[in-house]
Every structure is written in C-alpha cells, then in structure tokens.
Amino acid sequence: MPNLLRTLRSADLSNHDVIIRCDFNVPLNENLEITDDSRIKASLPTLEYLGKYCSKVIILSHLGRPTEGEFDPCFSLKPVAESLSAYLNIEVPLISEFSDLKKTSSKFELFENVRFHEGEKENKEGLIEKYLELADFFVMDAFGSSHRAHVTTYGIAKKIKNSFAGYLLEQEVDALERVSATREHPYIAIVGGSKVSTKIEILKKLSSKVDYLIPGGGIANTLLMAKGINTERSLVESSMLDFSNSLLNGEFGDAKILLPNDVTTADSIANPKEIFTDISVDQIPKDQLILDIGKNSAKEFSNYIADAKTIVWNGPLGVFEVEAFSMGTKIIGEAIKRSDAYSFAGGGDTVAAINKFNLSEGISYISTGGGASLEYLSGKKLPGIEILK
Predict the structure, then answer these.
(1) Which residue among 9, 114, 141, 323 is the one 20 to 30 A from 174 at the CA level?
(2) Angle at Cα 281 formed by Cα 279 and Cα 285, nearest 5°?
(3) Which pTM does this prediction carry?
(4) Which domains does the chain have, with CATH numbers?
C-alpha cells in the first residue's frame, strides 16, 4: 500500500517557524536521569533537517502522566532538553510559558511537558489557538502518541494550513504497512503481555493474517487455562476464558496457536525459594507461578521462526527482567535476530528486552510506539496519522 502521508519532502520550509511534536516519553530513574534515549535518537534526523532550513523550531512532547494543568518536576522535560543539546550540539532551552517562546537566540526551543497545560487531552480549542500563533508549519513525528486525538497530536494539524509527517513517523507507517500488507509467508506473530483483555483486537486481527501465533506471559497462561491446564497461582485472566476458547478454536482466523509444552516456575518472582525449570505444563507444582517458557518450547518456537519470512514481535515470553526467568525471551529474541525474515518489533517491554539482550542489529524495524503500533496493526485509524493524509 502506498504511503499517502504529506511528508517533509513536499514542504518548502525555508525561513519558516515550525512546531514539531515528538515523542520524548522516555524512562527516568529515581534521580530523574534518562535510562533509555532511543526515542530521542530516533527523532534526530527530522530535527536536524528542520534545523537546516527553518528559522525557529519549537519542539513539543509529553512525559509520563502528570495531573493536567499542574507542574510536577518529576515529569519535567529538563533531562530531555539536556540530551537534545548534547546530540544537536546546540543549546536547546526549556521554555515553560507560551509568552517566553521565540524569545531566545537558539534555533531550537523545547516547550515544557504539554500535559502541564490544561486542555491538552480534551483537544481544547483555546489551547490550539495558542499554538497556532507560534508557527506557520506543523510537523508530526510522535508516532508513539499518534493514536491520541490530543491538541498537540491532532488539534494543531487539523487547524494549521501546513502540516506534515516527520521522517520517523513516515518510517513507522512504512514498516507497519509492510507487515500489514505482506504476502511473505510463513508469517509469525509473538504477542506477550499480562492480560488478554488489553490485546483482544490485535489477537483477533493477527489470527486472521498470520500462519503461527505465539502467545507469551499472562496471555499464554490464560490460553493454557482455557485448554484445561492447571496453571496454579500463575497470572491468568479468568474472565477471558470464553474469548480464549474462541481464539483457540479458530473463530477469528486460521492461525495455528503455539502454546508452550514446558515452563519455568517459582514460588515467588522477587525472592524465589524454589525454581523448577523445563516442567511439563501438565505437571506444574502446586503453589507455583509460571514465569517463563521451558527450553523445549523455546527450541520448538525457534524452529518455526527460522523458517519465517515475516515476523511481528510485541511482548516478552516471561519475566525477562529477572535473570532466572529471562531464558525464553532471550532465545526467541536471538532466533528472530538470526532469521532472514522481515521482523517488526514494538512495545516498551519488547524494546527493553531487545536492548538487554543486544538484539537490535538483527531486527528489521524497532518501533518507538507500543500502543500505537498495536492499534495500527489491529486495523484502527490513528487520528495523528489520518489527519496528515
């Protein structure tokens, strides 16, 4: 499917002031230091291009979920401003008030967390008008927030005369279109997560597109329970058993559901006293939690991945953050890395696993947006993208 977005290549930005919406919702540690700046680095090509041609570039982003309309230093973009200054090799001042924008000599200005301004989430007209006074052009490059119809992801683009997709957004859409419209089979999807209910639509959609669907985490546990497996104390969603049975019975598509036949269990995640590895799913010890897949399952899944031509990966196979329960996610990730298939990976936990196990060089495309990529693959229209078509 052709990319129908209005892109920067079709824009004459010379000597214009531009607003760009980025996604700098980056993780911070307890000292408010950035622990993963991949989203910042992904935005640099667009920012560098704008810096080359534009008079002033006003950068917008949110960070976390502060109480709208209230300043909270824990959600300040100050660490982002420092990071951008280093990467762009120019001071990027952090501006807190509308009245102070465009008053510095810097080519770039970072506006403080857009969610500090009341009306952002409700797409309030008055807030949109304040932004429209600042620039002639708007660039949307925040794919991770494109599924939200907020002021800075949708409202400005709808009202301003000139709005365009940035390079990152364009790349994201191209990658998603490739896996959505692919005819390259076998096609495998790995979908992990704690709850079936949060991924109903993507499970439905992918079951009608892919040849093999590999569930992970709580999703796999719930499907195992639906098959009659005693999952003991494991994370399951009993309210989703009817849906799980429908999925297993092929009511949404012909995908073969690959469930683990062996698992790693423990009596606790944080301080386990007993860990059982490679236990058959029909012999799970009492009072144990399923926390990873077993080696036999990891090997079986890897064999399917080796033959794949297209792979979508969203979500880990177990509690990979804990070394004792990381084996399954690591083996599957390494199988994807070795594969010759076109592979698309998205989601915060997935990216964290990719970084932990040094898998990035083997993944064809790593998305900056988890929820947005899932909604796109589910067939939903994303407001921040639709408005740019």
Answers:
(1) 114
(2) 60
(3) 0.90
(4) 8-168 (3.40.50.1260), 175-377 (3.40.50.1260)
